[in-house]
Amino acid sequence: MFKFKHRSFFVSNNDRLRFFSVPSATSVVDSITQHQNCQQTSSNHNTHTRETPNSQFSHSLTSKYYISTLLSCKSLGQIRQVHAQVAVNDMLQDLIVANKLLYVYTRYKYLDDAYSLFCRMEERDSVSWSVMVGGFAKIGDYMNCFGTFRGYIRSGKQPDNYTLPFVIRACRDTTDLQMGRLIHQIVYKFGLHLDRFVSAALVDMYARCRVIEDARQLFDKMQKRDLVSWTVMIGACAECGNASESFVIFDRMRQEGVALDKVAMVTVVNACAKLGTMHNARLVHDYIWRNKFSLDVILGTAMIDMYAKCGSVDSAREIFDRMKERNVISWSAMIAAYGYHGQGREALDLFPMMLRSGVLPNRITFVSLLNACSHAGLVKEGLQFFNSMWEDYSVSPNVKHYTCMVDLLGRAGRLDEALDLIEDMKTVEKDAGLWGALLGACRIHCHIELAEKAAKCLVELQPRNAGHYVLLSNIYAKAGRWEDVAKTRELMIHRKLKKIPGWTWIEVDNMIHRFSVGDSTHPRSREIYEMLKSLSTKVELAGYIPDTNFVLHDVDEELKLGFLYAHSEKLAIAFGLITTPPGTPIRITKNLRVCGDCHTFSKFVSAITHRVIIVRDANRFHHFKEGACSCGDYW
Ligand code: ZN
Ligand code: ZN
Fold first, then answer.
1. What are the strands, taking DSSP E only, across 430-565?
2. Is there a smaller number of Cβ atoms within 10 Å at the N or the C end of the chain?
3. Would you state the pLDDT for residue 36?
4. Residue 632: nearest ligand to its CA?
């Protein structure tokens, strides 16, 4: 046991603090307890003197002293020393001091020490519980966070608007909806549902757990919405695939005169990137310009991504060129932008420029570069980058880089090399994306055996993802293995898996029109089908043969319905043709990968109508112009 110098700490002297060695918290407290027992038996009058007025005054002084000392602590050693002194001087019973000790331990993430102290505290108030719950939440120890919160409720104390957001955010981070709903009930029970911090956290939690309706309901009921809630709602709608709703909220926010900060602005820009419509991109850009937001690295980079995803790589480049400061993320975003649009050469040209500007590439840069190579079929260049990333830039490849390489080699038909690469991955864990890339390549090159292997790995890794089963069954269908097709379908039915419905949207006159396969719900449906019919006649005359055997589609619902000619992409294009002036580009977005037949059809339509058709699918952009696509039929 180490010795304490009684009251020696009153000399505010760091050297004196260092006088103590740094034992662990438990040993400190053990020693303290023993020491206290010892003191109590030897001199009982100590306890007595604490009750005199003078002593009370000195006690409060001491309490203030400890609090300020604790707040100036910078290391675990210092905190433990003060903790020891506090214990020696019987100040642990001072709840304010004890709570402050708890707080500094949690502030520096020494949760073991904090918890040990917490367990030994004879008295705990709401602050003690809150600090502990928040401490666990901050370090991501959610199990203990929930456990402590349970203890808090059982202790009969009322949780406050400080603690609840911590627990709710823990539910959000773990996407534990069940726990989230339970906490929501507690919120109601204690009448805190109108508190803006609590309700903002709840909105955020529901949004992150993708229960967007509940999030929206709460959001609409909020009496006072802070900027955080607005931002959360805009971001959540976009995340849940309803980016157009993000814009409804953004409009409402502007009408209510809520001023956006940089974080909110970036969220809106990101939502616009998800929505992918040029009209909204220009609207957001205009808002940014009018409200004099500075085009810093974060906002500028988000805007590059937005324009790239809205189909205008040139506007993305304009933003990029106007940015005064660019970091590695901005360069990587611009490289990625060229990559999406199949402009591999332009992407690669940026790399030496980036190096010349003194920015070193990181993992994201190499993902962008390899993707660009893959989309443009630049195999040699891709292999060079892959080899040099570690050798020249000390960036070790992760599963994303391997995935890009598998994609690159696979698309080029070098499937054996792709498989070799996968088998060489000793230290990097293989994920669904990697096998998905291999499967995609097998799909293009009709390599049944390898496709089967990849699909089986995928099904094993993600047994609930219906897309993998669909791909596998499509590959079997292409090979005419109808029995295997049936077996795969049966497995899907048995596992009660649902396929993602395919849909395409197009923006005309600031309105978004959404189409599903064989859709006849649109008010102008009759005209759309008439246009489609006349288009079909014209493209067939030009040499287009409908690929009725086209089974390589992520969503086969469309085929089952026998509506090959009424695929959502085709409906959207037909609608675009009847509603937009001749010569203007038609921009459509598909939630899944564009199907082969629609791809061929779009090429023909672009030729006979002399329209540029820009299709954004789940993977990339296709620019159809005069009968050719920017992807070089390589997607
Ligand atoms: Zn199609
Ligand atoms: Zn294409």
1. 503-508, 511-516
2. N
3. 35
4. 2
